[in-house]
Specification:
Blueprint: H1 4-22, E1 28-35, E2 42-46, E3 49-53, E4 58-65, E5 77-83, H2 88-105, E6 108-114, H3 116-128, E7 136-140, H4 144-149, H5 157-163, H6 172-178, E8 179-180, E9 183-184, E10 187-188, E11 196-199, H7 200-205, H8 215-225, E12 232-234, H9 243-254, H10 272-286, H11 301-307, E13 311-315, H12 319-327, H13 329-333, E14 335-338, E15 349-350, E16 355-359, H14 366-376, H15 379-388, H16 412-418, E17 421-422, H17 432-439, H18 442-451, H19 457-474
Parallel strand pairs: 5-6, 5-7, 12-13, 15-17
Antiparallel strand pairs: 1-4, 2-3, 7-16, 8-9, 10-16, 11-13, 11-14
């Protein structure tokens, strides 16, 4: 599982290559045949006669010449783009791993590690001028359907299959995130999820030794800990861009609802399952479970709710865990993490594999590009980067979930949540239309209209259905 031995081997290979490059040229030995006639006289005694015999001897002469200088060959050159990580050790390791592959394969690689915003700008330009795109690149989940539908991506199914041989194979949910029309257009290398945080003192106050496992149980718990005007159970914030859409899909999928079907085209939001999920939200609101600014709170609001001890529970990334470790160890001791609750259809969650490594068709070296991808996404190198970032990002292979590091109760829910995650577009593939539904906050606004009392669940679902149909008509999926 650890990558230290591989790094040492890589260094030995590099040193050996450098020594070979610096050693003096070995003379070239050319063996050629040179004929010489040597007269060897032998006397043969015959009565009254002396016979002299001559024997022709062929000798081999070795001629030593200078070794001819080789004609320098042009190395293949690839470009590699990766997003910048706040943990500099990871950026350094990424460069080292790519350089190691380059040395092994005698390839020059131009490495760019840039901020997300810079990559978005470069990708947008590349949609208009594909020649400006790199050979190999990180591909954020929302960009994969854009590139796929523009016919810019290289099919990397064989690179996926190669990387899938290591570490017990990829987690099942990882394949969903990179598969369109039965083929893989990227290879997973990173995981990121949003588990649930619970205040253990509030659980105790409600007579519970562990957090609720279902949304129905959560409603009962909230009714016991809500205090009108001063304390609220669930730090839901629906006015942001990301967190609110994540949590809406968690709830809807766990109730068996979805905005689109398995075919990625059929609009399915208007269903009894969606109505049941909205009824749960309305019951939570009526019980006083959401902070007063839940409708307008942005993506930072739920962090603030929990860090200021306003709520008993939130759903968030590891950022809150990191904050507590640095700023409030007492709150950390009073916190338990779990996977997000289950609904009638089980436990499902948004996200998990928000980025993959892919290649563009413009590359002159498709086989080398796929080789680099398979190398980078091998289980050992994924794990090395996971350790370097102190598990702020997650591994993506099955065996990684068995490592003793996950015995830490604060870390274990992250690896568990990763295995129930789905990409936007679930239960179908990711499409530009599916991401446009997210971009327009269709599901969050559907919930806001119900929670605020502006519309009944039935009215709000119908409006959401009409909005989704318009989006899919404007961005028809190419599947």
């Amino acid at each position: 599982m650890r990558s230290k031995s591989l790094v040492i081997i890589g260094l030995v290979v590099v040193v050996s290559m450098l020594l070979a490059a610096c050693a003096p040229a070995t003379p070239q030995v050319i063996e050629k045949v040179v004929e010489k006639t040597v007269v060897v006289e032998k006397e043969k005694v015959v009565p009254q006669t002396v016979i002299v015999e001559q024997t022709k001897v062929v000798e081999k002469e070795k001629v030593v010449t200078a070794t001819p200088k080789p004609t320098p060959a042009t190395k293949p050159k690839l470009s590699f783009w990766m997003n910048y990580n706040f943990e500099e050790a990871v950026n350094i390791l990424i460069r080292d791993q790519v350089k190691q592959w380059a040395l092994t394969n005698n390839v020059d690689v131009d490495i760019l590690i840039a901020k997300d915003t810079d990559l978005h700008a470069k990708w947008s330009a590349g949609m208009e001028a594909p020649d400006t795109l790199p050979d190999v690149s990180v591909i954020f989940a929302q960009w994969m359907p854009k590139f796929y539908e523009a016919d810019l991506l290289l099919d990397v199914s064989d690179a996926y299959a190669e990387a899938n041989k290591s570490g017990g194979g990829f987690m099942p949910a990882a394949k969903e995130a990179v598969t369109i029309a039965g083929k893989q257009w990227g290879v997973p290398y990173i995981g990121s999820v949003t588990p649930a945080y619970w205040r253990t003192d509030k659980l105790k106050e409600a007579g519970l030794s562990e957090p609720p496992k279902t949304y129905a149980e959560m409603l009962d718990f909230c009714k016991k800990v809500n205090k009108k005007g001063s304390f609220w159970c669930y730090g839901l914030a629906l006015g942001g861009y990301s967190d609110n859409e994540v949590q809406m899909r968690n709830i809807l999928w766990s109730y068996g609802a979805s905005d689109v079907g398995k075919d990625g085209k059929t609009i399915t939001i208007n269903s009894p399952e969606t109505l049941a999920a909205l009824k749960w939200l309305k019951d939570m609101q009526d019980a006083g479970s959401f902070p007063p600014d839940a409708i307008t709170g942005d993506d930072s609001a739920n962090n603030k709710y929990y860090q200021t001890k306003m709520v008993a529970m939130i759903v968030n990334t590891g950022s809150v865990l990191s904050w507590m470790r640095t700023n409030d160890p007492d709150l950390l001791k009073n916190t338990m993490l779990t996977t997000s609750p289950a609904g009638p259809a089980g436990a499902h969650a948004t996200g998990g594999f928000g980025a993959s490594l892919g290649a563009f068709k413009k590359t002159k070296y498709p086989e080398l590009a796929k080789s680099l991808i398979a190398w980078f996404c091998h289980a050992d190198r994924v794990w090395a980067r996971t350790e370097a970032i102190k598990f702020g990002n997650l591994p993506v292979h099955v065996d990684a979930a068995k490592d003793p590091v996950w015995d830490d109760p604060y870390l274990k829910p992250f690896i568990q949540q990763l295995q129930i995650g789905h990409p936007i577009g679930y239960p179908g593939p990711s499409t530009t239309a599916a991401y446009e539904v997210q971009n327009q906050l269709v599901l969050s606004r559907m919930a806001i209209r119900v929670i605020s009392g502006e519309q009944t669940p039935e009215q709000s679902v119908k409006q959401a259905e009409d909005e989704i149909k318009k989006i899919y008509a404007k961005f028809p999926p190419k599947l």
